Amino acid sequence: MVDSVDDLRREIDDLDNNLHDLLMKRADLVKKIGEEKRRNKIQVIQPDREAVMIRRLMDRHHGALPRHAVVRIWRELVGAVSLLQTDVKVIVCAPDEQMTEAWDMAKNYFGSVVPMQKMTNPMNALSMVKEGEVTFAVLPWPDDQDPKPWWAYMRGESPEKIAHIVASLPYGSGVDSRTRPGFKALVVGCLKFNDSGNDHSFLFLDLDDSISRARIVDRLKAMGLTPLSLLSRKGHPGLERTQHFVEVDRYIANGEMTDQILVKLENTDGNCICLGGYPVIPALES
């Protein structure tokens, strides 16, 4: 019996050595990829590529190791190698009573080695992203009760200061049972929101007051888009405008599609911008 246990432990030690060798090799390859990206001016951090990787692993995964553990391991890897490619810094923004949940979700997503700091004011956090003081901000999921919602201030004065939503937290359902049910956040950074093959998008609409929320929902559905949430606020004082924040169930790129939305709403002098979105991650409970 003892010999059998010892043999199994030696086999595990060999596997650990092999895993460590592969991790070191992977880190070297990622560092080389980062150098090539910078040389060719390619976006270094790519949440869409990371999501495709996670989906591929979940499709092939089997056995006793929980799915959420696999995702945690790979998110830790992604966070560690991101520091090899670029200087990643994260600010976590949440009210004091929600900071523990927000911090845990951010740590699960970015990993334990990426520097993070806390803040309670989302407008200040968003400004730090735009000014390049931090790479990402984890911001509270928007709700209708906020009189000054951060999503209304995402547009930048110059292309390099345009922030996009690039991920949602928690990263897949069932990742962390300590997180209160329904507690969510969004990750914002000054990088492009790219198509991962299964995404949700957030649209910013600045429309005439005559355009009702019901019309927005109906016209988006007529275009094959399913609105998942719709928040609204009055625009600038003195202007008969209303701003809307709409989540839809597919990837939207700025350009032809956003122009078509304004035509469908019969408000071509309005404004429709995709503020980004997030890759949909498979359920991780099992």
From TrEMBL:
Residues 5-32 form a coiled coil. The keyword Metal-binding does not apply. Pfam families: CM_2. The keyword Repeat does not apply. InterPro entries: Chorismate_II_sf, CM_dom_sf, CM_II_prokaryot. One of its GO terms (biological process) is chorismate metabolic process. Its EC number is 5.4.99.5. SMART domains: CM_2. GO terms for molecular function: chorismate mutase activity. Keywords: Coiled coil. Residues 1-89 form the Chorismate mutase domain. SUPFAM superfamilies: Chorismate mutase II (SSF48600). It comes from the Bacteria. This is chorismate mutase.
